[in-house]
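## retry 2 of 3
previous attempt timed out at serialization; input unchanged, resubmitting
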Amino acid sequence: MSTVNNFILAVCTTANDSVGGSGPIFFCQDDEDLQKTSLYLEKILDAMAHEIRPGTMILVKH
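## retry succeeded, writing output
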């Protein structure tokens, strides 16, 4: 069985104009929404959320 490790699974952001790509992107209304969405996705995807800059989080499977 193969596993996926060390890949960006999703991006959560409040900066709608500075994120793009082919992966799942969750656009959040404010910092509170960003934190809540990231936390839910961490649990659902069994991943870790990392803030790469203010207003943008990536979810990575380690």
